Amino acid sequence: MVKLKIDGKEVEVDNGTTILRAALKLGINIPTLCYHEDLPPTGNCGICVVEQKGGKTVRACSTPVVEGMEIYTRTASLLKARKTVVELLLSNHPNDCLECPKNGVCELQKIAASLGIRKISYDHIDRTITKVDDSSPSIILRPAYCIQCGRCTQVCQNVQNVHALETSFRGFSSFVGPTMERVLNDSECVKCGQCSAVCPVGAIIEKDDTSLVWEALNNPELIVVAQEAPAVRVALGEEFGLPIGTNVVKKMYTALRKLGFKYVFDTNFGADLTIIEEASEFAEIFKENPDEFPLITSCCPSWVDYLEKFFPDLISHFSTAKSPHQMLGTMVKTYWAQKMNIPAEKIFLVSVMPCTAKKYEIDRMEDMYSSGHKDVDATITTREFARMLKQVGIDLTSLEDGEADNPLGEYSGAGTIFGASGGVMEAALRTAYFYITGHELPNPDIPFVRGTKGIKEGEIEVLGKKVRIAVASGLSNVEKILLKVREAKENKKEIPYHFIEVMACLGGCVGGGGQPYGSTIKKREIRAQALYNEDKSLPHRESHNNPSIQKLYKEFLEKPLSSKSKKYLHTHYIPRPLFKGVHGGKWRE
Length: 589
Known about the structure:
The protein has helices at about 20-25, 75-90, 105-115, 150-160, 195-200, 210-215, 230-235, 250-260, 265-290, 300-310, 325-340, 360, 380-390, 415, 425-435, 475-490, 520-535, 545-555, 565-570; strands spanning about 1-5, 10-15, 50, 55-60, 70, 140, 165-170, 175, 205, 225-230, 265, 295, 345-355, 380, 455-460, 465-475, 500-505, 580-585, 585-589. The chain is α/β, with parallel strands linked by helices and about 600 residues long.
């Protein structure tokens, strides 16, 4: 432990703690811009400068404490230095705040206001690179707004190990984007949106599809239907000032109807449906084709994109089950449309997702039109949904509770935990165990798959056999698991795992790229716990015990993995290798 003084107050912290973290322990907030609590400090922006006794200035985010250190955070010279740094940033930053998508949540805007900056002492100089890259269906790069904080490249390179974003050139010509002057859609990018989630300004944003949704809602010829993912219900409330992890699912149903949606279903129903098919795949391999292990889950579109680009040799191990919102989309435009006697072409289905990659997924041609129409017409993020509500003055906190429409609104606890890393695996094991043994899993809770740790491993016994499990979130962790599988296959060794769950975003969908800005690991943990709490509160905790799912198979799909199920609920994958070369410091084909 180390003792020091900050602004005259004594504090004791662990050796190696930064000045910034020590100050927070005292309730002293030092302004930062490049710093993010989940990323290694870089000291890029210089706004967090503090003074040591004697007058030396250091950067609080990256300077470790020393025994007996005395730090001052609020001197006149520090205020002047911080204002100078921010004014320099503003001097070559677009000043169209009212038109910027980050208006009101921009960290640069907030710091400028907190420092009392009302005019800039420097001439305005436009950046050389200003062309907007909107080639991706999910993410938009706006280099003119970049402040070179480095957060996005840290996430893309170190957390995700994708390396789609790098800083090129210097000075006013510097910009963050793909190498070799490629556009984003032709790069390694897997559309996860983690870059947009950590960007403090408007340099990286999600593609906004709210205008498309408004147009549909105002079209009297369309029946506009909504579905929303499990992770949205425990994050949306943050946009309206509610405590982190507040489950607003019932208010969300009401909010969607107030926006004008005619019917409101729940993606959790689709999650239950995904589990039925995925668990059936596992049970079939377990009983008949154990040489085909491991089975890898498939509900994350960023992970699908990553697999096709970087691990196409493992496609044969990938579950062919579609993601929950795609499955529900197909059922809306077939099963439900037939029951309601509504022409499928009159239905416009909108998914509210925690994910930017879903925007890419809905336009994949690999069986995402299996209903004969586009299964999901538009998808918006949690952030976009919140903006739509605020646009028409709907205060989520004041709404009465509502209910989802049936038969595609009823869900089990297994469906709701899909939003957390490990939730898909836990849900799948509950049903796969039943399909293999004919008995319910004695305890539906599987603790070793829970939490935000990047890699989680364990075993579960099924009919006397040890089933080895791996759960990975954050693509750098995913790679470690897949390299083990690849090595075992290449060397004809025993496979390390039988069942693998993968989520591109650390912590799972609760930390998706479309969730409220300011997501941290701590927030992801709280959101995930809220989903587990809902799981325990529901009458059915296993997907196969959902009465509406049972009815769907009886009336329409016949049975899991039937020809009809495969037509509507399954997809296929295509190898999409980029090029031979160095990626993330490793040679890859």
